[in-house]
């Protein structure tokens, strides 16, 4: 039994939940049962639809120490091999107390402090560059099992063995994904741009993915209704096929970037949360993506920036070809299996 302690809601999006479900799928393939602990019910239905058992604690996702009595009762009942924790709101005390109950694995992005855990995972492209050894050495504490780098990026099963997408000389289909919640309302701004200035994107067809927690769904539908060059996608069942059917992508700098890498779709990325800054910079530095940087302070110009970047890549076939090759070099779709294999070794040899 593996317990996942994770949350997803309109404030923090669904990225944490999605990556944990990908890891849980790989645990299932390895013969392990998985159980999800959520603070509130926002993501309950999404997790249950993937076939996992869920317990909602009725606590606050940003005050994790208050939930410890609930977790204690669950751990005593289920006796898991480990708890996988994915939250930016953990404290040193919280992780230490969890460690008194069972083995703890933490999914990290930021190296905020020397986490008192048994296993530490940072599958981000910049994970191998983060000096965890020095972080723990400076605290005088033992370095946990570390699993680092994009070779461990946990993707859904559909991203295994995807043939390299052909990079065409011209761009026709553009995928736009802003995550589960789209907290900065980029898709709404883009829909307004497309309806107001259609001459700028003539010859392009936009495939817009509306996340489960996007609060602008109805307005976006109304705006693009009847537009032949805009296709809305909700509850996508095969994201890999949709990605591979497009020539170019626009995505927030979250977990979706790793899926796009596995498909080899040249991508324009942007930052909508602090934890995405390092990833956007690293993909740009690696020559794998075009990054617009942090666009939260440029809401009025965000759609213009996106369209300008799309048109720039549209006109540069050789750059898109180089980007696609670099993306496939970074991610192959089997990261979840590698990750789980390493974590299970740690469970046998704590």
Can you walk through the features of this model?
It contains 13 helices and 13 strands. The protein is of the alpha/beta class and 350 residues long. The strands form 2 sheets. It has a 7-stranded parallel beta sheet with strand order 3-2-1-4-5-6-7, sandwiched between helices. Strands 10-9-8-11-12-13 form a 6-stranded parallel beta sheet, sandwiched between helices. Helix 1 packs across helix 13 (335-348) and helix 6 packs across helix 11. The chain is globular. The chain starts with a strand and ends with a helix. The model has no long low-confidence stretch (mean pLDDT 93).
Features:
Rossmann fold, seven-stranded parallel beta sheet, alpha/beta, 350 residues, single chain, 13 strands, 2 domains, 37% helix, six-stranded parallel beta sheet, globular
| Alpha carbon gyration radius | 20 Å
The geometry reads as: globular
Rounded to the nearest angstrom, the distance between the terminal CA atoms is 16 Å
Q: Could you tell me the mean pLDDT?
A: 93
Strand content: 15-25%
* Number of continuous helical runs: 13
Class from helix and strand fractions? alpha/beta
- Secondary-structure element order, as H and E? EHEHEHEHEEHEEHEHEHEHEHEHHH
Low-pLDDT segments, ≥5 res: none
Q: State the total count of DSSP E strands.
A: 13
Q: What's the CATH superfamily of the largest domain, by name?
A: Glycogen Phosphorylase B
Number of domains: 2
CATH architecture of the largest domain: 3-Layer(aba) Sandwich
What kind of sheet is the major sheet? 7 strands, parallel
Helix content: 25-40%
